[in-house]
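User: Hey, my collaborator sent me this sequence without any context and asked if I could get a structure. I don't really work with proteins. Can you help?
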Amino acid sequence: MPKTITVGLIGFGTIGTGVVKTLQMNGELITKRLGAEIRLKKIADLDIETDRGVKVDPSILTTNAEEILNDPEIDVIIELMGGYHPAREFILKGIENGKSIVTANKALMAKHGEEIFEAAEAKGVSIGFEASVGGAIPVIRTIKEDFAANEILSIFGIVNGTANYILSKMSDQGEDFQDALKEAQRLGFAEADPTFDIEGHDSAHKIALLATLAFGTRVPIDDVYMEGISKITQDDIHFAKQFGYRIKLLAIAKQCGDSLDIRVHPTMISVDNPISNINGATNAIEILGNAMETSMLVGEGAGSLPTASAVVGDVIEISRNILTGGQNRVPARSFLKENIRTMPIKPMEEIESEYYLRFYVVDRPGVLSKISGILGNNNISIGSVIQKEQKENSGVPLVITTHTAMERNIRNALAEIDKLDIIKKETFYLRLEKEG
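Assistant: No problem. I've predicted the 3D structure and written it out in structure-token form, which is a compact way to encode the shape of the chain:
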């Protein structure tokens, strides 16, 4: 008879259902690979009446998570309830009771990860969180193990499928933002309240986690700069194509000497960069290391089964550690605890980039010279200019791309330009990335 690893699941929503389906579908295969059976002993959720489309013995369902947290037979707790509370308290209590933890909760790990990591290290149990970034893409394990021989220099990519789906619909089918969002909601790619995805919060949590692992540093989530995609218009999509770019919501983390450049924002990225052609709900993460150069990971970044695949993968890895007595063989934070440092976050005002500036101006002579004069006074050099026909009441679209400039100078220049009587509405700008 094979040995048994006993598991408890807290949270029986979309991903939790996927976990149950995966264990039922691939249970025999997992046993052959692991040399032990993974037995799901108990499932806790506030709602145990709704049909999830998967057959479960009613006797293993409970509304009381304490039955899992305090069960001495349970080796691994899977937390899939989401949110900060009571997920944090459940995880910490599980750890205190000697349970290893698997979670997909990127928000919790980004905000309270340090506390959870330290608790797990002190108790000698494992914490798996592969599913918190990139769904089925094994980016966390890749950084911690496969790229361990590298100094990682940058991480750059698409880590939110909802935003990428919307921008793809806008780019490829000419849909406006609101129409693309409604379609994403209808298909289940976007929540009823999509703010977390479209305004960059989800991507910020994920890039904070990846930066923690890649650079061995603490990343306070509140220090991660973020912008969303809700202000992107069809004009921006059109002009991006004319310049040879596509617009993507990018999560970026780079080492800049002793500081860290970490941010999330919509970006114009050259069509020559493979990431510009990652469409739909797909995620893509490009990692630059000093020994391997560039590697890109692409795959389904969300969904019930893809995310469940990563969750169960963590359960299997932890189970192997339990069976062999190799708990914490790989540090949860990629670096040993004593080597974790605090790198200062580079202020957004100090980053340098090329920029896309979209103005709506009155149709009269001298407009461009006034704008270019202010840009020049702020050490901003113009790369190219496009001016289109009159819009109804919003003025003439005037689009300028710049050579490399400092963010502070761009903000100062636009604040001055927007006070001019030639400007019909607030100027919009995007950063440009050519190489990634």
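In plain terms: The first helix runs from residue 14 to 34. You can pass these tokens on to your collaborator as they are.
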